[in-house]
Design goal:
CATH superfamily of the largest domain: P-loop containing nucleotide triphosphate hydrolases
CATH architecture of the largest domain: 3-Layer(aba) Sandwich
Largest sheet: 5 strands, parallel
Shape: globular
CATH topology of the largest domain: Rossmann fold
Number of helices: 20
Helix content: 40-55%
């Protein structure tokens, strides 16, 4: 404990020299160490008034808030911290856990421990649901919100074997992203390095996110899923710093799949933006894709997904960035049958004709097919409860569910795509869509 006499002497010195920042900082830290939290809070506030951008002072204020149970205030205090000390991440993680947001807390904690191993807290790790820090950041993305955290855990457990159909798409991903990592010597002989970007686009619910996770699982690499809430910030400059920090995390953990979902929100056309701050986020994104130094992004495999590729700034399609646009189509009949088979793997089945069901679900996306299976299973569960025993799912059950369902997004998406393919395709960017909208190649 800090001696009370020493604290009184510091207070008296502050009264004489109220604008002495080092002295006020020292007093605030000593009050915090002594457990005089309200007094410490006041001194940190006064010090921040003298130095508003001081990350160390903001971290101290957040700790004072946290120890008083003011978790929301602690989070708010750290919102403005950029490139703060590792302890800031630990404090933020604890505040997030206290607020019930464990998924958001995990990446903050592991990042802090990676920077300063002395911050490791086994008891807190138990609260996070992991006993030790993962060697590579990986995220299981089945649980959607909250999205886009720098993840925790090891191995996604999903590979291309778990992706029905889409053989051409998977082959493109293998050649562009996976093989350069798996066979580096061969690719180096042709001047190719591991890394680069692929943009997956297509109707909602057709498996773009699932493909990204499978690519990471196929490689055995880390998987970082980035959401808008991880990047965009109300304070000027913070969004750019968040984006840089995300790429730095991926670079430290290469080989790593860095996945941006709904990327059109971060990479929209700059000509459509009214505010310079939004254009700066796009500029930062382009700079990170290029890498600040030669080879900086080697081993960082950047995947992005969007339902609206036509809204992306054209600069993102330059070679070395998202130079491969890969159309992820709605599943055809064979793929729908395979998807249904995968979805029913853990369901008790009678003799099942998945092809027949696939024929009744034309225009259904993968997400629609999951809805069909869920509907059929729920109806069968009600029958099983009445019968008092498990009953197998039959072809008729899936057909009944399919007749009651309607495809959600594919028809609308195709109508929009038709406009771009027929009227804004001078460069041939959207030629892959021609067979799907009834157009003709040039």
């Amino acid at each position: 404990m800090t001696d009370r006499g020493a604290l009184d002497a510091l207070r008296q010195a502050i009264e004489v020299s109220p604008d002495n920042l080092p002295l006020r900082r020292h007093l605030a830290e000593q009050l915090l160490a002594a457990g005089l939290l309200m007094d410490a809070e006041g001194q940190f506030r006064e010090a921040l008034a003298l130095a508003p951008g001081d990350a160390g002072l903001a971290t101290g204020l957040a700790e004072a808030f946290l120890r008083q149970g003011k978790n929301g205030a602690a989070i708010a205090a750290l919102d403005r911290v950029a490139d703060g000390p590792p302890k800031a991440g630990l404090i933020l993680a604890k505040a997030l856990v206290a607020e019930g947001d464990v998924p958001a807390a995990r990446p903050r904690y592991w990042e802090a421990v990676a920077r300063d191993a002395a911050l490791a807290d086994p008891a807190f790790e138990a609260a996070l649901g992991h006993s030790q820090a993962p060697p590579v950041p990986v995220e299981e993305i089945d649980a959607e919100p909250p999205e886009g955290r720098v993840p925790s855990g090891t191995g996604s457990g999903v590979t291309f074997d778990d992706v029905a159909g889409m053989d051409e798409v998977k082959q493109t991903l293998r050649m562009k992203l996976l093989l350069p990592v798996q066979q580096p010597d061969l690719f180096a002989a042709y001047g190719k390095r591991a890394g680069g970007g692929v943009l997956l686009y297509g109707p909602p619910g057709c498996g773009k996110t699932h493909l990204a996770r499978a690519a990471a699982g196929e490689l055995g690499a880390g998987f970082i899923s980035v959401g808008l809430s991880d990047i965009l910030d109300m304070y000027i400059g913070s969004s750019e710093r968040n984006l840089h920090s995300t790429f730095e995390t991926a670079r430290r953990n290469a080989p790593c799949v860095l996945f941006f979902d709904e990327v059109d929100a971060l990479a929209a056309r700059r000509s459509d933006m009214r505010h310079a701050t939004n254009r700066q986020v796009v500029n930062q994104f382009l700079a990170e894709l290029d890498g600040v130094e030669a080879g900086a992004n080697e081993g960082v495999l950047v995947l992005a997904a969007t339902n609206a590729p036509w809204y992306l700034d054209a600069a993102f399609r330059r070679p070395g960035r998202f130079d491969r646009l890969v159309f992820v189509p709605p599943p055809d009949a064979a793929a729908r049958a395979a998807v249904l088979s995968l979805l029913c793997r853990e369901v008790p089945l009678a003799e099942m004709d998945f092809r027949k069901v696939a024929g009744a679900t034309d225009g259904f996306a993968g997400a629609d097919l999951k809805g069909v299976v869920d509907r059929a299973v729920e109806a069968k569960l009600q029958e099983a409860m009445r019968a008092g025993r498990p009953l197998p799912l039959a072809t008729g059950d899936l057909l009944d569910a399919a007749r009651a369902a309607r495809p959600t997004a594919v028809p609308e998406w195709m109508a929009t795509a038709r406009n771009y393919v027929m009227h804004a395709n001078e460069s041939g960017t959207w030629d892959d869509l021609l067979p799907w909208i009834g157009g003709k190649g040039r």
